[in-house]
Write a structure and sequence with these properties.
The chain is an all-alpha fold and 420 residues long. It has 17 helices and four strands.
């Protein structure tokens, strides 16, 4: 084996080619992490923008000229982003923000579309990228418990102090949930516990130190279901998790039944004032949506949203993903979103008893819980749809694929050595 320049590490075959592919995927992924702290440094932000542009160009070339195929889930996500851009342009909103958000989303979903079949190499590369930003963020939380920096009022409608490397504390879920998805898929594929357990602990500690109520609830929901209910897939599955949004919309936003959970909101999390601000934002959003229900208003500047809502700090967005999608893209946008959810989850639901699919479904539970009170649709969260879409065709069988390749290469190397 050593004569061939390759080695077997555990069950998996590591070669120079695989190492280069791993580095290649890391280079394509890292610029889209885009921690909020780096945006404050103009020179670094310019480098990151150039890096993101190069990453996007490479992924598009890979898609169009090497793979020569785009999956249906990516096409529908692209249609949803196009709708957001058109509505933003029509209502003279934040066109630049709309384009940059769509750019990041399409970069990641295309990357996952072309690289998902790389098995452990793909999972390890993505996990490594999340480890970098999450561990750095945790260090900043430990060193600066009151916040690493304060956002300037010239760039934000809401100025707060609880900003760390990843940005404002409520935004961390955008990184935490997909990081947990890759960490546990990596463990399921390789049976190596170290990286998975360390990152899981770092994520939970980061959420507790920042005391982000929505993040803590989403992590607790994932932990409880994973430990006690993950095998009861007839109730706890991908589609029932997405039903939480409809249930929440009816019973909390419409019927105002949140007082039944005040013991959790106030006594445990201490978030009564946050809830009151969100309730005002929900009511105002419903009234605004009624004036343009079909296509919505697109992406608006945060200063405009504050003036439009006139309800205080909670008015930068709708503080609920379903409401925010309705606000930005109307009923048409909700229909496209529903199509994305259904198509992405068909394979996860069909084989919901597989361990890989249970992990994928529980990751979506974390996203669903967090977005009951926040409207996150970032690029890595959207990339989770691609992971779900390919759950049984590639990622779900990554372990078996890798083992088959290992055996094949070992036999080939043995034949070469015996021939020599």
């Amino acid at each position: 084996m050593t004569q061939l320049g390759n080695k077997i590490y555990g069950k998996f075959y590591i070669s120079k080619k695989n190492t280069l592919m791993w580095l290649f995927l890391v280079v394509l992924t890292l610029p889209h992490m885009n921690p909020a702290y780096l945006e404050r440094i103009s020179s670094i932000e310019s480098i990151m923008n150039m890096w993101r542009l190069m990453s996007f160009a490479v992924v598009v070339f890979w898609t169009l000229f090497i793979k020569k195929h785009i999956s249906s889930i990516v096409i529908i996500i692209a249609a949803w982003e196009l709708l957001l851009f058109i509505t933003t342009l029509f209502h003279q909103g934040e066109v630049y923000n709309s384009v940059t958000a769509a750019f990041s989303v399409l970069s990641i979903v295309l990357l996952y579309d072309v690289a998902h079949d790389k098995g452990e190499i793909f999972l390890s590369s993505q996990l490594f990228c999340f480890e970098i930003v999450i561990y750095i963020n945790l260090i900043t939380e430990l060193i600066y418990p009151n916040g690493l920096y304060t956002e300037s009022s010239s760039t934000k409608a809401f100025v707060g102090r609880l900003y760390w490397f990843l940005g404002y504390y409520n935004n961390h879920t955008r990184y935490f949930v997909p990081a947990l998805l890759f960490a546990w898929l990596y463990y399921q594929t390789t049976r190596k516990k170290g990286r998975t357990l360390f990152l899981t602990g770092a994520i939970f500690l980061s959420a507790v130190l920042a005391w982000s109520g929505g993040t803590i609830l989403s992590l607790l929901a994932m932990i409880i279901v994973f430990i006690f209910f993950k095998n009861r897939v007839h109730i706890f599955n991908y589609y029932t998790y997405w039903m939480l949004h409809i249930i929440f919309f009816v019973f909390v936003i419409i019927l105002k039944s949140q007082n039944l959970f005040m013991w959790l909101i106030d006594d445990f999390l201490g978030k009564r004032s946050s809830l009151i601000g969100r309730m005002l934002a929900w009511d105002r959003t419903l009234k605004i949506i009624s004036d343009s229900p079909l296509f919505g208003y697109g992406i608006k500047d945060s200063f405009f949203r504050v003036a439009e809502y006139n309800v205080g700090w909670a008015a930068i967005h709708a503080h609920n993903m379903l409401l925010e999608i309705l606000y930005q893209s109307g009923v048409v946008g909700i229909c496209l979103w529903t199509l994305i959810v259904i198509i992405a989850g068909k394979r996860v639901y069909k084989c919901c008893d597989k361990e890989e699919n249970k992990i994928i479904a529980i990751a979506f539970l974390g996203w669903c819980v967090a977005t009951l009170v926040e409207p996150f649709t970032s690029c890595f969260l959207m990339g989770m749809f691609v992971i779900a879409y390919y759950s049984n065709s590639a990622l779900g069988s990554a372990k078996n694929q890798t083992e088959r390749r290992t055996l094949k290469r070992m036999r080939s190397a043995a034949r070469e050595l015996s021939g020599a």
